[in-house]
Design goal:
574 residues, mainly alpha, Methane Monooxygenase Hydroxylase, Chain G, domain 1, 24 helices, 79% helix, elongated
Length: 574
């Protein structure tokens, strides 16, 4: 085989693989977009029930045709506090079952001569749907799925064509034969090769397709193919672990749980390797009338035997391992807790994104992460607000300066939070969004802008207090009582705002927030009228009056930002 021949084979193979992967991407993303809201709702309701979690993981992965996407989604949900670690482990187990559907699609429709009969009509039909219903998002997303499935099958056909006839290259057959001549060590070698190649390709479905084609063309035997499949189950965990690099502790643990589950499953299977393969061989014999161990060209050989046997093994492997290991979810949790230690630290003045990190192709899931980050933003703002009364009650300059320093640090944190969350939302907006999705992003951008403005206003109130202290301006008890009451009214409004941000945005009621805002405005009007009368009567001097009016005006301004947040959610998000 000349260098030019090798280059042509590599180029043809890479092109065929690219078509296959693009088809997988279109198919997966089309269904993720179509079912984004429903997937989020279903995943969010998974509780500690292992059976429910397994069924959910299997169903979601069957729909979106990507166990990696499901697992990254799980890491995101654990990272966002929407899933317990136990629930996440169950969903991951189910995802391993759901991903076996891809192998069955390829085996039943993507090998042999059937691919063009199915794929080309689907391709034409999907294109027709897209052009006929371009303005209807759901129809367009279904069209993306159908086109993706068609391209996947076309890619399988191209992969078959790209595979050279190894009879013309005996040296390559000899190399494969040597690699398969080490008994049980050969099995371990092929497991390692499957894991490494899947890590590189970043798609277990693509490696399964390559393995099926290699078997179909007689490149490798049944034992080696099964070992590659087991290696692929280990290699596919790399995606979730990469996504978890920027996740919090529980997110990292969910990704490690995926690795532990698949590695333990492979080890258990290796213990009973020969009996399992004998069972699969008998099942295949009964279905297609040919044993997967039958050599190529021998009497009774059927090219579909090994692909059928691999699909059976892939399903058997994941279903049986899930049935066994589901009883040991608490043990798996203990293992990943040991692997990923808690890192106790005082994070009051250290800000980093807690829930935003793992990026999914589905805008709905990314938006949920942003919602959780906004909730964290609100918590920071409320904490910052509680420092204000400490400025008035400070016993000495040291206590006052310490509190002022805390407010300054929190103000810097709110600036950073607004910038990073807004950048994340802008990135989401650059994708393919529905009208509702665009409205939600608009609402959330408004929310983070007003949260940052609340932080600025709290700092302005603190700065006014500092100036008042430095200029030796003193309020009497009546003025202090008035400002304390205003502080309480704004605190009530902030609590309502924070509660709204923690709820499902579709369930928020605006009336309580409006009542709180009305109470603030009414009291501000009352204070302003009393203030003007006091100035006319000379009750206090200009310096006191100026500091006093500035403070109650700032509190009222702060209330405006608070109501803006609830209004933005109710008006724009729904």
């Amino acid at each position: 085989m000349s260098f030019f021949d090798v280059l042509i084979v590599i180029i043809n193979f890479a092109g065929a693989l690219a078509v296959f992967l693009f088809g997988m991407k279109l198919m997966s993303e089309g269904l993720q977009k179509f079912a984004g809201n429903k997937m989020r709702a279903v995943m969010g309701k998974v509780t500690g029930s292992p059976v429910r979690g397994i069924l959910t993981g299997a169903a979601v992965t069957t729909v979106i045709q990507s166990s990696s996407a499901t697992t990254v989604m799980v890491v995101s949900f654990v990272n966002a506090g929407l899933l317990t670690l136990g629930g996440a482990v169950a969903v991951i187990m189910g995802a391993n079952i759901g991903t076996t559907v891809t192998a069955w699609i390829i085996t039943l429709f993507g090998l042999g001569e059937s691919d063009s009969a199915f794929s080309l009509p689907m391709l034409l039909g999907a294109i027709s749907l897209i052009f006929m219903f371009m303005k209807r998002d759901k129809i367009r997303w279904i069209g993306d799925f159908v086109i993706g499935l068609a391209l996947l099958l076309v890619g399988m056909g191209l992969l078959q064509q790209a595979m050279p006839n190894l009879e013309q290259y005996p040296e390559f057959l000899e190399a494969l034969a040597r690699l398969s001549a080490y008994g049980f060590w050969s099995i371990l070698i092929f497991v390692a090769v499957g894991a490494v190649l899947t890590c590189l390709v970043q798609a277990s479905a693509a490696m399964m397709a390559i393995t099926l084609v290699m078997c179909y063309n007689g490149w490798i035997g049944f034992d080696a193919a099964v070992a590659l499949v087991m290696g692929q189950n280990i290699g596919t965990t790399i995606t979730a672990n990469i996504a978890a690099m920027v996740a919090n502790t529980n997110g990292k643990r969910a990704a490690r749980a995926h690795l532990v589950f698949n590695v333990v499953g492979v080890l258990l299977t290796l213990i009973v390797y020969k009996p399992v393969l004998a069972l699969i061989a008998d099942m295949t014999q009964g279905i297609v009338g040919s044993n997967p161990y039958t050599p190529v060209g021998a009497a009774g050989y059927a090219p579909t035997a090994i692909p059928m046997a691999l699909s059976l093994f892939h399903t058997f492997f994941n279903v049986v391992n899930t049935a066994i290991l589901a009883w040991f979810i608490p043990v798996i949790i203990k293992m990943v807790n040991w692997m990923v230690k808690d890192k106790p630290e005082d994070e009051e003045y250290v800000y980093k994104l807690k829930y935003i990190g793992s990026w999914m192709n589905t805008a709905e899931i990314n938006l949920k992460a942003a919602e959780r980050e906004i909730t964290e933003f609100s918590k920071r703002v409320l904490r910052m607000y509680t420092f204000l009364p400490l400025l008035r009650t400070a016993k000495d300059d040291a206590e006052f300066d310490s509190t002022m320093e805390r407010i300054e640090k929190y103000e810097a944190i709110t600036d950073k939070m607004e910038m990073e969350i807004a950048e994340y939302l802008t990135r989401i907006a650059e994708g393919d969004l529905s009208h509702q999705g665009s409205q939600r992003i608009s609402a959330m951008l408004c929310v983070v802008d007003n949260l940052e403005s609340i932080g600025d206003t709290v700092y302005q109130i603190a700065a006014t207090r500092k100036n008042k202290r430095e200029t030796a301006v003193h309020f009497d008890q009546h003025l202090n009582d008035n400002l304390d009451h205003m502080t309480d009214l704004v605190q009530h409004a902030l609590d309502i705002m924070d509660d709204n941000l923690k709820k499902d945005y579709d369930l928020i009621e605006l009336a309580p927030a409006e009542d709180a805002e009305t109470a603030i405005n009414t009291y501000r009007d009352q204070l302003r009228e009393e203030h003007l009368n006091a100035l006319k009567k000379g009750t206090y001097d200009f310096a006191i009056g100026n500091a006093y009016s500035s403070l109650y005006a700032l509190y009222e301004k702060l209330g405006d930002y608070v109501i803006n947040i609830s209004e933005a959610i109710v008006v724009k998000f729904k």
